[in-house]
Amino acid sequence: MKADRFKYCQDRMKAIRDKHCIPIMKTDRIVIQVLNQIADRSERGLEKYGTNLERTDLETLDWVQHAQEEAMDLCLYLERIKEQIKNKQL
After folding, report:
1. How far is the C-alpha of 9 from the C-alpha of 16, rounded, in Å?
2. pLDDT tens digits for 9-65?
3. How far apart are CA 42 and CA 6, in angstroms?
4. Which label site among 6, 32, 53, 88 has the fewest CB atoms less than 10 Å from its CB?
5. For residue 58, what is the DSSP state?
6. Contacts of 10 (CB under 8 A, 6+ apart)
7. Could you tell me how many helices (H) and strands (E) the chain has, helices first?
8. For residue 26, what are the CA distances in angstroms to 6, 19, 37?
9. With contact defined as beta carbons under 8 Å apart, do 10 and 32 qualify?
10. Looking at the whole model, is its pTM more than 0.90?
């Protein structure tokens, strides 16, 4: 099953690479997995918001605000993981 998923990810990334000229190491499954997740996230964002990151309706400070909020969420997630590690739950 993992081999099938890996092959699917490789094929998908090849299609993206060919379309967008993105050089990708064919044998690095971690890179392929992350790029696959990025592509999935982009597709979900387009479905949810009806736009992508090429939108022009936001000012620079709006983009900074979005990035700050994402970074704050990351800090919260990391703190939660630290607590789990301290409590030996992970």
Report:
1. 10
2. 667 766 766 666 666 556 678 888 888 899 889 889 889 999 889 999 999 999 999
3. 20
4. 88
5. S
6. 26, 32
7. 3, 0
8. 11, 16, 16
9. yes
10. no
